[in-house]
Amino acid sequence: MEPKVFSLAERPEMLGPVFDMPDSWPEFATQDPVGNAHYGRIPVELPEYVLFAEDERGRVLAHAFSVPFALRAEGRGELPARGWDQVLVWAFSDLRRGVCPDTVSAISVVAAPHAQGRGLSGRMLSAMRDNARARGFAEVVAPVRPSAKHLEPHTPVEEYAHRVRDDGLPYDPWLRVHVRAGASIERVAPASMTVAASLAEWRRWTGLPFDSRGDVEVPGALVPVRDHAVYVEPNVWLRHPL
Protein backbone atom coordinates (compact mmCIF):
# COMPACT_ATOMS: atom_id res chain seq x y z
CA MET A 1 0.00 0.00 0.00
CA GLU A 2 1.24 3.47 -0.90
CA PRO A 3 2.19 5.56 2.18
CA LYS A 4 -0.24 8.35 3.03
CA VAL A 5 0.92 11.91 3.68
CA PHE A 6 -0.59 14.19 6.34
CA SER A 7 0.32 17.41 8.09
CA LEU A 8 0.76 17.61 11.84
CA ALA A 9 -2.01 20.20 11.87
CA GLU A 10 -4.33 17.44 10.58
CA ARG A 11 -2.91 14.76 12.87
CA PRO A 12 -1.53 16.46 16.02
CA GLU A 13 -1.47 13.14 17.86
CA MET A 14 1.47 12.12 15.64
CA LEU A 15 3.83 14.74 17.08
CA GLY A 16 5.65 12.14 19.19
CA PRO A 17 6.11 9.57 16.40
CA VAL A 18 7.35 12.28 14.04
CA PHE A 19 9.91 13.48 16.58
CA ASP A 20 10.90 9.88 17.36
CA MET A 21 11.38 8.71 13.76
CA PRO A 22 14.94 7.42 13.36
CA ASP A 23 17.17 9.18 10.86
CA SER A 24 20.69 8.84 9.47
CA TRP A 25 22.09 12.30 10.21
CA PRO A 26 25.73 12.25 11.38
CA GLU A 27 25.86 13.22 15.05
CA PHE A 28 27.82 16.43 14.47
CA ALA A 29 25.18 17.71 12.03
CA THR A 30 22.63 17.83 14.86
CA GLN A 31 24.81 20.09 17.01
CA ASP A 32 24.27 23.41 15.23
CA PRO A 33 23.11 25.81 18.01
CA VAL A 34 20.74 27.74 15.71
CA GLY A 35 19.10 24.52 14.59
CA ASN A 36 18.90 23.23 18.15
CA ALA A 37 17.18 26.44 19.24
CA HIS A 38 14.58 26.47 16.46
CA TYR A 39 14.13 23.12 14.71
CA GLY A 40 12.07 21.56 17.49
CA ARG A 41 9.75 24.58 17.50
CA ILE A 42 8.52 23.94 13.97
CA PRO A 43 6.18 21.00 14.75
CA VAL A 44 4.79 22.79 17.81
CA GLU A 45 4.36 26.34 16.48
CA LEU A 46 3.99 25.67 12.74
CA PRO A 47 2.39 22.20 12.53
CA GLU A 48 0.74 23.02 9.20
CA TYR A 49 4.23 23.14 7.68
CA VAL A 50 5.27 19.70 8.94
CA LEU A 51 4.30 16.78 6.73
CA PHE A 52 4.81 13.08 7.37
CA ALA A 53 4.24 9.83 5.51
CA GLU A 54 2.93 6.77 7.31
CA ASP A 55 2.43 3.16 6.27
CA GLU A 56 -0.65 1.00 6.75
CA ARG A 57 0.51 0.16 10.29
CA GLY A 58 0.75 3.83 11.27
CA ARG A 59 4.56 3.92 11.30
CA VAL A 60 6.17 7.20 10.25
CA LEU A 61 8.36 6.57 7.20
CA ALA A 62 9.43 10.11 6.32
CA HIS A 63 8.83 13.72 7.24
CA ALA A 64 9.33 17.15 5.69
CA PHE A 65 9.74 20.35 7.70
CA SER A 66 9.34 23.82 6.20
CA VAL A 67 8.83 27.36 7.47
CA PRO A 68 7.15 30.49 6.07
CA PHE A 69 9.10 33.75 6.15
CA ALA A 70 9.24 37.19 4.55
CA LEU A 71 12.04 37.04 2.00
CA ARG A 72 11.07 40.43 0.56
CA ALA A 73 11.06 42.24 3.90
CA GLU A 74 13.21 45.35 4.26
CA GLY A 75 16.88 44.47 4.54
CA ARG A 76 16.45 41.01 3.00
CA GLY A 77 15.52 40.28 -0.61
CA GLU A 78 18.33 37.84 -1.43
CA LEU A 79 18.62 34.26 -0.32
CA PRO A 80 21.07 34.52 2.58
CA ALA A 81 24.68 33.38 2.63
CA ARG A 82 23.98 31.89 6.07
CA GLY A 83 21.33 29.69 4.47
CA TRP A 84 19.66 27.22 6.82
CA ASP A 85 20.59 29.05 10.02
CA GLN A 86 19.45 32.44 8.73
CA VAL A 87 16.11 31.31 7.35
CA LEU A 88 15.24 29.67 10.69
CA VAL A 89 16.04 32.91 12.52
CA TRP A 90 14.02 34.96 10.03
CA ALA A 91 11.02 32.63 10.17
CA PHE A 92 10.67 32.69 13.95
CA SER A 93 11.42 36.40 14.16
CA ASP A 94 8.64 37.01 11.63
CA LEU A 95 6.27 34.72 13.54
CA ARG A 96 6.95 36.51 16.81
CA ARG A 97 6.47 39.97 15.29
CA GLY A 98 3.44 39.06 13.18
CA VAL A 99 5.17 39.74 9.86
CA CYS A 100 3.26 38.38 6.87
CA PRO A 101 5.34 35.72 5.09
CA ASP A 102 5.77 35.68 1.33
CA THR A 103 7.94 32.57 0.83
CA VAL A 104 8.25 29.03 2.20
CA SER A 105 11.67 27.52 2.86
CA ALA A 106 12.32 23.82 3.06
CA ILE A 107 14.17 22.95 6.26
CA SER A 108 14.51 19.19 6.02
CA VAL A 109 13.25 16.18 4.11
CA VAL A 110 14.13 12.94 5.87
CA ALA A 111 13.28 9.30 5.25
CA ALA A 112 13.70 6.72 8.00
CA PRO A 113 16.74 4.47 7.36
CA HIS A 114 14.60 1.37 6.73
CA ALA A 115 12.44 3.28 4.20
CA GLN A 116 15.22 4.81 2.11
CA GLY A 117 15.57 3.96 -1.56
CA ARG A 118 11.82 4.04 -2.20
CA GLY A 119 11.51 7.55 -3.60
CA LEU A 120 10.00 8.92 -0.40
CA SER A 121 12.24 12.01 -0.33
CA GLY A 122 10.99 13.07 -3.76
CA ARG A 123 7.41 12.43 -2.73
CA MET A 124 7.80 14.49 0.44
CA LEU A 125 9.37 17.33 -1.55
CA SER A 126 6.39 17.26 -3.91
CA ALA A 127 4.00 17.27 -0.94
CA MET A 128 5.84 20.25 0.54
CA ARG A 129 5.46 22.16 -2.72
CA ASP A 130 1.75 21.27 -2.88
CA ASN A 131 1.26 22.36 0.73
CA ALA A 132 2.89 25.75 0.08
CA ARG A 133 0.84 26.27 -3.07
CA ALA A 134 -2.38 25.41 -1.23
CA ARG A 135 -1.50 28.09 1.35
CA GLY A 136 -1.20 30.74 -1.32
CA PHE A 137 2.57 30.88 -1.77
CA ALA A 138 4.15 31.24 -5.20
CA GLU A 139 7.59 29.92 -4.34
CA VAL A 140 9.45 27.40 -2.20
CA VAL A 141 13.16 27.86 -1.61
CA ALA A 142 15.52 25.25 -0.23
CA PRO A 143 19.00 25.41 1.33
CA VAL A 144 19.99 21.96 0.15
CA ARG A 145 22.65 19.68 1.65
CA PRO A 146 23.92 17.81 -1.44
CA SER A 147 23.66 14.13 -0.56
CA ALA A 148 26.92 12.92 -2.14
CA LYS A 149 29.14 15.95 -1.47
CA HIS A 150 30.61 14.27 1.62
CA LEU A 151 32.39 11.85 -0.72
CA GLU A 152 34.38 14.82 -2.09
CA PRO A 153 35.06 17.06 0.91
CA HIS A 154 37.90 18.94 -0.82
CA THR A 155 35.94 19.78 -3.99
CA PRO A 156 34.82 23.44 -3.91
CA VAL A 157 31.06 23.52 -3.36
CA GLU A 158 30.56 25.98 -6.25
CA GLU A 159 32.18 23.50 -8.63
CA TYR A 160 30.28 20.55 -7.20
CA ALA A 161 26.87 22.27 -7.20
CA HIS A 162 27.07 23.07 -10.92
CA ARG A 163 28.47 19.73 -12.09
CA VAL A 164 26.03 18.01 -14.46
CA ARG A 165 25.61 14.61 -16.07
CA ASP A 166 25.42 14.00 -19.80
CA ASP A 167 21.66 14.58 -19.68
CA GLY A 168 22.17 18.07 -18.21
CA LEU A 169 20.80 17.20 -14.78
CA PRO A 170 22.87 17.79 -11.63
CA TYR A 171 25.48 15.18 -10.77
CA ASP A 172 24.40 15.15 -7.12
CA PRO A 173 21.38 12.85 -6.48
CA TRP A 174 19.51 15.18 -4.10
CA LEU A 175 20.11 18.28 -6.20
CA ARG A 176 18.84 16.22 -9.15
CA VAL A 177 15.57 15.42 -7.34
CA HIS A 178 14.99 19.12 -6.76
CA VAL A 179 15.76 20.12 -10.35
CA ARG A 180 13.52 17.36 -11.72
CA ALA A 181 10.76 18.79 -9.52
CA GLY A 182 11.17 22.16 -11.24
CA ALA A 183 13.79 23.94 -9.13
CA SER A 184 16.77 25.94 -10.35
CA ILE A 185 20.06 26.50 -8.57
CA GLU A 186 20.25 30.08 -7.31
CA ARG A 187 23.50 30.38 -5.37
CA VAL A 188 25.69 28.72 -2.79
CA ALA A 189 25.13 29.46 0.89
CA PRO A 190 28.75 29.23 2.08
CA ALA A 191 27.97 29.30 5.81
CA SER A 192 24.61 27.56 6.02
CA MET A 193 25.34 25.78 9.31
CA THR A 194 28.11 26.29 11.85
CA VAL A 195 29.14 23.78 14.50
CA ALA A 196 31.91 24.99 16.83
CA ALA A 197 32.77 22.73 19.73
CA SER A 198 35.59 21.41 21.87
CA LEU A 199 37.92 18.70 20.60
CA ALA A 200 36.49 16.37 23.24
CA GLU A 201 33.01 16.83 21.81
CA TRP A 202 34.20 16.24 18.25
CA ARG A 203 35.97 13.08 19.39
CA ARG A 204 32.78 11.86 21.06
CA TRP A 205 30.61 12.64 18.01
CA THR A 206 32.93 11.15 15.39
CA GLY A 207 35.21 8.63 17.10
CA LEU A 208 38.18 10.39 15.46
CA PRO A 209 41.28 11.35 17.48
CA PHE A 210 41.55 15.02 16.38
CA ASP A 211 45.18 14.81 17.49
CA SER A 212 46.90 16.82 14.75
CA ARG A 213 46.68 20.37 13.51
CA GLY A 214 45.01 21.28 10.24
CA ASP A 215 41.89 20.17 8.43
CA VAL A 216 40.24 16.88 9.37
CA GLU A 217 38.09 14.82 7.01
CA VAL A 218 35.02 13.68 8.94
CA PRO A 219 32.72 10.99 7.51
CA GLY A 220 29.46 12.62 6.44
CA ALA A 221 30.87 16.16 6.39
CA LEU A 222 30.59 18.11 3.14
CA VAL A 223 33.85 19.96 3.75
CA PRO A 224 36.79 19.28 6.08
CA VAL A 225 36.48 20.34 9.71
CA ARG A 226 38.84 23.29 10.08
CA ASP A 227 41.50 23.73 12.72
CA HIS A 228 40.06 24.58 16.16
CA ALA A 229 37.23 22.10 15.46
CA VAL A 230 34.90 24.51 13.70
CA TYR A 231 32.74 23.07 10.95
CA VAL A 232 31.08 25.56 8.58
CA GLU A 233 28.77 23.71 6.22
CA PRO A 234 27.87 25.12 2.81
CA ASN A 235 24.49 24.40 1.24
CA VAL A 236 23.05 25.15 -2.19
CA TRP A 237 20.04 27.46 -2.51
CA LEU A 238 17.39 26.28 -4.97
CA ARG A 239 14.20 28.02 -6.04
CA HIS A 240 10.97 26.13 -6.76
CA PRO A 241 8.39 28.29 -8.59
CA LEU A 242 4.88 26.99 -7.89
How would you summarize this macromolecular structure in one to three sentences?
Helices cover 28% and strands 24% of the residues.
Structure write-up:
- This protein has a single domain, classed as 3-Layer(aba) Sandwich (Aminopeptidase), CATH 3.40.630.
- The chain has a seven-stranded mixed sheet.
- Helix 5 links the parallel strand 4 and strand 5.
- The longest helix has 15 residues.
- With 242 residues, it is α+β, with helices and mostly antiparallel strands.
- The model has no long low-confidence stretch (mean pLDDT 95).
- The protein is globular, with a radius of gyration of 18 Å.
- Helix content is 28%, strand content 24%.
- It contains eight helices and seven strands; from the N terminus they run βαααββαβαβααβαβ.
What count of domains describes the coordinates? 1
* Sheet with the most strands, sense and barrel status: 7 strands, mixed
Mean pLDDT: 95
Strand content: 15-25%
- The appropriate CATH architecture is 3-Layer(aba) Sandwich
What is the terminal-to-terminal distance?
A: 29 Å
Instruction: Tell me the quaternary state.
Output: single chain
